[in-house]
Specification:
mainly alpha, Arc Repressor Mutant, subunit A
Amino acid sequence: MTKKYIDMTQSEHQQLSTPVLKITTTYDLWAYLFQGYAKKSTPHKFSKPEAFFDLIKRQRLASATKDNDFLDGSILSISQAWGWDRNAVKNFMQYLAGENIITIEKKSRRTLFRLNEISLE
């Protein structure tokens, strides 16, 4: 018996209500998953998962070493680290903000980022 969702168009599939899946992981899991990927000394364009892992690393560092919990880095520095143009970084961050994964705050001329629902144990 063929399932109905197999015959749906992409737009029909997108209209279905999708439950939110939240998974608690450890930093060590993410480090393991990206073990063997190119190091920073080897310039390359980050994939979206690599970019998100970089945000996790930045958030972990910010949470462990500062009084505030905003990530280190500007749009420009992040775009250089990831090998992306500034608009691609802005679009990626806007997507994450729209999914309530990060918070974006404007402070003077700077844009600040923070991962939501993160805990440092």
